[in-house]
Amino acid sequence: MEPIARSPSRTTMVMETIRLRIASRALLPGAKLPSIRKLAAALKVSTSTVVEAYERLVGDGTIQSRPGSGFYVAQHAGATAIPFSVADAGPKRDRAIDPFWVSRQSLEADAQDAKPGCGWLPPSWLPEDGVRRALRTLSRAKSPVLSEYGSPLGLAPLRQLIGRRMGERGIDASPDQILLSESGTQAIDLLCRLLLEPGDTVLVDDPCYFNFHALLRAHRAKIVGVPYTPTGPDIDAFATAVADHRPRLYITNSAIHNPTGAILSPVTAHRVLKIAEQSNVVIIEDDIFADFERSPAPRLAAFDGLDRVIHIGSFSKTLSASGRCGFIAAKPEWIDSLTDLKIATTFGGGRLTAELVYGVLSDGSYRKHLEVLRQRLATTMQTVSTRLQNLGVTPWLEPQAGMFLWCRLPDDRDAADVARSALQRGLVLAPGNAFSLSQSATTFMRFNVSQMQEPHVFDILRDVLSAPHAPKDRP
Amino acid sequence: MEPIARSPSRTTMVMETIRLRIASRALLPGAKLPSIRKLAAALKVSTSTVVEAYERLVGDGTIQSRPGSGFYVAQHAGATAIPFSVADAGPKRDRAIDPFWVSRQSLEADAQDAKPGCGWLPPSWLPEDGVRRALRTLSRAKSPVLSEYGSPLGLAPLRQLIGRRMGERGIDASPDQILLSESGTQAIDLLCRLLLEPGDTVLVDDPCYFNFHALLRAHRAKIVGVPYTPTGPDIDAFATAVADHRPRLYITNSAIHNPTGAILSPVTAHRVLKIAEQSNVVIIEDDIFADFERSPAPRLAAFDGLDRVIHIGSFSKTLSASGRCGFIAAKPEWIDSLTDLKIATTFGGGRLTAELVYGVLSDGSYRKHLEVLRQRLATTMQTVSTRLQNLGVTPWLEPQAGMFLWCRLPDDRDAADVARSALQRGLVLAPGNAFSLSQSATTFMRFNVSQMQEPHVFDILRDVLSAPHAPKDRP
């Protein structure tokens, strides 16, 4: 088959999509690639574009063609191929929308870009004065604080403080049951290392935080989605998924679900735990949005007593994402194995950022900051919700707290198309399918209300939504 | 078989050893355990102690007995068993000497313990004033520095500075070829995720940094050791190992080898690269001790031009281990895949510690600090070497730089026994076999000369070495 000349950017996009899936372990060495027709339909490109991309990937050794059978990922393709049309300094604006799309667009955005798609607050919403004070205090700390590795479990006073804060949410955890990590993401990563064998099945919510997909693929897990309802996972679907797939793990957010803003109800929590107990499923409860909460919602870890539920948290969302620090609370026998894994993979933890977080948390002003922040978010949530509804964008529910609004676009618009157009105008959005394993959130979008303070955000949204567009179901 | 009453601490030690090997993936689910006789000999306990330990591990579901065949690790033993005689606050002084022993003893040591076994400098040897200045500067930084995630590649000015410093060592790397990581260990961990499939073989030096063993086991790699000589790996053994085991990776330190202090010679470097090229072996060159160097030694990455050699470094050893920051320099097509893996497993990197490191490195005083430090280490190395030789402890070579002295103990003393006795006296040592895959360094010990400034260190060493001891080859 002769390669056919095609728009280089589309061919490159297809090649990058495949390389990404290989790098992120969504496609393992030896795996069969999607058929040309199927991939063309999925990526909305012509079959000849896919043909050229596959030919070129064969040419550089990333994939292999087996005549009569199709295309397969080469052994060690993730490492030895000559992949990726490389990293110029700026964001890759033509990258396919996959689990990394939102992450990279948000993290690589220019300072002047608006980022309603990102998952964090603007700096001015964070307790900057507290962080500055804590840094000044640290600059006068004793030498070991500035120079030495952290202890394996991590800074003891911070673990005690985290234990007390968990107690306020009904979760009993002694400081010895708490292990500090570099971040909430790293906490889940360590747990996957401990609990998963390659090929194990993990349940996630559909939709869920998009990075769960990327992280679980890096662990070669089989991922199964359970539809999420306004009160937690759809319990019948959860029971069926457990029976059919015998998962090892279920990863979820209980209080303030990402991306929907939903809150787990006590009755759903109880049922989820009962099913998990009967089938020996371990649950990771990712509670990184805890400090946004205005009234305490149920926690699986509180009902379960940290038996099969592992509770994780971090301070990136309400304190600082620059000085990173997360934690794992679990039963003692797991903490010791996790500590060894932490040493093996990161050696001593970052003591300085733990000291910084402790400094800010133990400063009386942090609680006041949270009160102001929650009120500000509540007001903003209402304003933004109204303005979005004026554009025909409909919230799936009105969240009780947090920064996210999960919305349906008007006219069944394809959120990925809208996100691509918005990006041309300097607006980073988070299209629904980045969160959805089943790709069933095509017309949904997650909005971060704190990042929508500038009026031009709504002007761009209006323009993009009212622009002529191809019907959603074109081939 | 009825369990026989035994000293609980020995039984517990055996149980912990097995659980650790399971947690660290040295023993995978379904793997056969060592025979009772073999384990008893290896751990220097009676066979009845091992019998009781195995019985108890069967009892709690960690392992299974198959009559007539032996004992096997249970499926999911690492996670569901009720393991570990839990973490009281203090260090576990009776823990078996495995790759984690030195790490945990060093990281968990009381402030009053002396730690000639640890791998870092005392705080007073580090550029504390520079760190304090950098913290004060950070306390006045712009808001995003204090609040936002780092960019995927990490702080651009720091990557530029690292590139220039690498240039001084003959390695060409543009800032786009440099990815910041949370630490040197995390850099290797990311690379293992990218490059290894479970079951792949990795070559390491024998002896090598003990944590390489733990880290590679966490990646389910098969580890093969190559004897290390004063000028690099034994090149014939290296060639044989490559031919016999077809390794995917070779991990080494070029300049200032840990634990021996040896330096790679140009001729060995050239031969290693030639063999690696012929057999498509990727090399990770861990250069975290670079700043100790007094005259520049050859780097594999300089000869190879970052083609199949990946160069990693960190600032934990000469700047601060509290504010952690490492880096990976590699060919561009690998950096992009690594960036996705970094996002999947840690999301945004720690911006604050990167800013801190940049602040200290770009402060003119850091170079002056290094000059003073190198001189101080050279003087100390000489004094400590003489004092050790007075105790009959013989250096394997006189290192040209760095903090480590790799020494043979007098009278073929078992270094693990000596380390256990010393620990009772508050002295943390690093016995040779923790570094040796072949367990052929029984009579060796690694000494960190910077941690031997207190005269009582030598008093304790003298006492422990002159105490009556069982002959090395008892059963």
From TrEMBL, chains A, B:
Keywords: Aminotransferase, DNA-binding, Pyridoxal phosphate, Transcription, Transcription regulation, Transferase. The keyword RNA-binding does not apply. GO terms for molecular function: DNA binding; DNA-binding transcription factor activity; pyridoxal phosphate binding; transaminase activity. Residues 8-76 form the HTH gntR-type domain. In the C-terminal section; belongs to the class-I pyridoxal-phosphate-dependent aminotransferase family. This is PLP-dependent aminotransferase family protein. It comes from Rhizobium quercicola.
